[in-house]
Amino acid sequence: MLILETLRFLMTTVGGLFVLVLLLRFYLQLARAPHKHPFTQFVLAVTNFAVLPLRRRVPAWHGYDSASLLLALLVQLLVVVVVLALNAMPYDFANPQTWFGLLLLALLELFRQSLNLLAGAVIVQAILSWVSPYNALSPVLEALTRPYLKPFRAANVGGVDLSPLILLLIIQVLQMLPLRMLEGLFLTQLQLAV
Questions:
Q1: pLDDT grade, residue 160 (50/70/90)?
Q2: Where are the domains of the chain?
């Protein structure tokens, strides 16, 4: 039992971190973050071993890094499958309905990871704006968060920008209500497929 818990922990942690870095690669390209920035170069270096071979088979779609996004989905699907396979409840992995449910769970988790990534970027950007406003990481964080903070920029009270707080509240509500409800629905669907 303890070994299974350890395996689940390792799989979700290592797989989740790799998925985060792959999503970060996708979003950095999407946000047109500075390509020569050391942080961007680090993300590219960590993921190139997996993304570049896949890119030969999966072309960019409308200029978007579809290989990184597809790889993030595949890794997340692998994590979901392994974690559920290690559970005591048996799942019928030969049933196409089970795989459809697993794919939906992986997509949901990718969305959750994207929200976590955005929340993390907003928090780090807010902290850096107080302690080190001219930090070298600021242009990358600005590129990642600008489109999401822009609708709330009018929320300025006494010279204090409240847009990060509003965005973080929205992210939390999304994770508490619709994402948990969908996850419960998808898990129920998987149990019915057994």
A1: confident
A2: 2-192
Residue with tokens 């019928």: 92
Give CA separation, 91 vs 3, 14, 25, 187, 191, in Å.
20, 23, 33, 11, 7
* pTM confidence score: 0.90
| pLDDT tens, position by position, 81-107 | 999 888 877 778 888 888 999 999 999
Number of Cβ atoms within 10 Å of the Cβ of 1: 6
Residue 115: phi, psi to the nearest 5?
-65, -40
Six-digit token string for 31: 């946000």
Q: Which tens digits make up the pLDDT trace of 69-83? A: 999 999 999 999 999
DSSP state of 37: S
Beta bridge partners of 107: none
Contacts of 47 (CB under 8 A, 6+ apart): 21, 22, 25, 68, 71
The residues facing 156 across adjacent strands are 161
Pick the closest to residue 189 from 116, 79, 101 (CA basis).
101
